[in-house]
Amino acid sequence: MAVRHRLIKVSPQTVWAVLSDGSRYADWVVGTSSSEPVWGQWPQVGAAIGYEVRFGPLRLTNETVVRHCEEGSELELEAHAGVLGTARIAIELRPWGEHCLVIVDEHPLQGAGGRFHNAGAEALIQLRHRAMLARLARVCEEQDRSERSERFRQRSVAAR
Could you tell me the CA-to-CA distances from 55 to 29, 33, 59, 60, 129 in Å, in that order? Predict the structure, then answer.
């Protein structure tokens, strides 16, 4: 079971805003090139987004389904990866002062990924999580800067 964490220097609300926007999935999930809603209202339980993974000219489409959601703090997903099977990905947000500690816990559920899971696969998942959490931090920090700029602009306009 691959567990990794990262302190993201924005509020948990900002991180949740990114996680709860299904159209931004490809912005922070490593390996995806695009994402779009398939059904339901993301991130409600049962909602799904489709995503595309590209390997040169090869394109694979898969989907991720919300299995559990605690608004603002927990999101558990089941990612379908074709012949590799499915994986459970749990994302937990914890307030850490004014920042957010993000904890990701992933393990295979079904298919080849579960049957052939070993220390090598675990190491690859850890590397993927490191990159994914770095991307999530970048996306959240950019959103936070944008929101702060907008609030400043609105206050400046109101003060005139």
Answer: 15, 10, 6, 8, 19
- Structure confidence by residue, pLDDT tens digits, 81-130: 877 789 999 999 999 999 999 999 998 888 866 666 777 777 777 888 89
CB 77 within 8 A of CB 64: yes
Strand pairing of 74-80 and 99-110? unpaired
Paired strand residues for 7: 101
Pair 103, 3: CB distance under 8 Å? yes
Specify the pairing of strand 99-110 against strand 2-8: antiparallel
Q: What type of residue sits at position 100?
A: C
Length of the chain in residues, anyone? 160
DSSP 8-state symbol, 85: -
| Phi-psi label, residue 141: left if phi above 0, alpha if psi -120 to 50, beta otherwise | alpha
Question: Please, are residues 144 and 10 in contact by the beta-carbon 8 Å criterion?
Answer: yes
pTM: 0.86
Q: Which two tokens stand for residue 92?
A: 């937990």
| The pair of three-digit structure tokens given for residue 32, joined into one six-digit string | 């995806």
All residues at 6 or more sequence positions from 74 whose CB lies less than 8 Å from its CB, including other chains: 68, 90, 91, 92, 93
